[in-house]
Amino acid sequence: MKVDSSIAAVVTGGASGLGAATARALAAKGAKVAIFDLQEEKGKAVADEIGGVFCEVNVTSDESVDAGFAKAREAHGQERILVNCAGIGNAIKTASRSKEDGSIKHFPLDAFNWVIQINLVGTFRCIAKSAAGMLTLDPMDDGERGAIVNTASVAGEDGQIGQAAYSASKGGVIGMTLPIARDLMNEGIRVNTILPGIFNTPLMNAAPQAVKDALAASVPFPKRLGNPEEYAMLAMTMIECGYFNGEDVRLDGAIRMAPR
Questions:
Q1: H/E segment holding residue 43
Q2: What distance in Å separates the CA atoms of residue 206 and residue 84, rounded to the nearest whole number?
Q3: 54: left (phi over 0), alpha (psi -120 to 50) or beta
Q4: pLDDT tens for residues 151-164?
Q5: Active site residue ranges
Q6: What is the gyration radius of the CA atoms in the chain, in angstroms?
Q7: Do residues 14 and 32 lie in contact, with contact meaning Cβ atoms separated by under 8 Å?
Q8: Residues 6+ apart with CB under 8 A from 42
Q9: Is the distance from CB of 125 to CB of 59 less than 8 angstroms?
Q10: What pLDDT digit, counting tens, does each position of 194-226 carry?
Q11: Does the domain at residues 8-251 carry the CATH identifier 3.40.50.720?
């Protein structure tokens, strides 16, 4: 797909990190970008910077997502590009014993479900609603109607201690990529997923420097954290290369995560 001023795009989680970098990369090619996020101040700042529109969206809510797409389409028209970057994580063992008093506890199911609802169900919700909108479009010269990029994680393949919920949610995103690409193949909509490794996002920026240095040292090459702009580069390739479809691609400096 050629990305230019005739193309509308939606980026979930676009207020910061991987999503913001992708929103900027799309806008640099001329695309009209709508940012879906709950971080209003940051989201509006990015939208103003790139000449886009901010939509306050909670991906766990049908009503909120519907309202976001309605606002984005009123401003820019039906999107041909969707990039899903909205997500959260937690670190809780499935069951554990307290070091202080030996008491036993298990992973709270509400906390497990919340990660699944945002990372997996929220991603699918946005895909389904965006794809339905793309079906109303006329195909372009190459027969394409749209392109969707999702964000999983290397944890979806080699999750660490405490990542049961996060790994399950990201593994689900990986697992649904090919079936969705097949669902949409006759409509000219491509679907791909990126599995980022350890990236220098706002969440990671909050970690102590010693922790970041240790994480960087664990990457085979290059021995550093990934940059959001590198994620955006791969997302743009998935969008622009018309033969890229149904793929799950690690972007991780060849890291394979250890148990902890």
A1: helix 40-50
A2: 23
A3: beta
A4: 999 999 999 999 99
A5: 166
A6: 18
A7: no
A8: 15, 16, 20
A9: yes
A10: 999 999 988 777 677 887 888 899 999 999 999
A11: yes
